[in-house]
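Worked example

This section walks through a single chain of length 234. The input is the sequence exactly as stored; nothing has been trimmed or padded.
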Amino acid sequence: MDVITLLKKLIASEESERKLGNLEMAEAFATKAQELLFKHKMDMSDLEIAEEEANEPIADEVMSAAEIFNISANRSQNWLGILLNGICIPNFCKVIRTRPNVFTVVGRKSDRTAVMTLFVYLSKACIEMAPREAATLCGPYGDRSGFVSSFKLGFASAICERLRVKVAELRAGAGEQGLMRINQMERAVNQKYRELFPHTRMGGQAHARNYSGYSAGKAYGHAVGINSTLRLGH
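Given that input, the structure is written out below as tokens.
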């Protein structure tokens, strides 16, 4: 089973268990999936790497969150960019927002597919949970709109934190040869990104306006998981 097929299998299992309410059976999905993808890169043979470089040149691909989630293409939702950037970094991709809620991802096709798969799964989990938490925690007179937007920012922040920690652990155990391979892949993507977007600037930080919503989003971002009965590699 190839790594993308396995990733989609893990996601389908988690979604099924979550719909049944079996949240207590969950393990940390986002970090487990990231470990799967990262280790796959580290376990590739020199021949597989050469084939990937020949068959999957680094390219750019437009990803419209507006179309995927049927949201406004005019009013930017900053949490989507934060989440997507956090997923891109450990998957040897880079991203730039080209229009509100529309992004361009730079990387190899298999890496872009992994990014898209994780991004859609995690975004949908957040979009589904935010209004539920708002209904439970805001009360009849609370600022539900502010809660929901802050929840999403907190969720994106938590996922980014989890991925940074997991990748730092994996890098620490990669060994000298593995680190050389990681650095080589990152340099290649960075070079292509600079060729395509030579005049990019860093965007400003998004700020949450509702502390309770942000805290609830972070808690959910750290908890979103996958069924413990499904193991990587099976």
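What to look for: The first strand starts at residue 26 and ends at 28.
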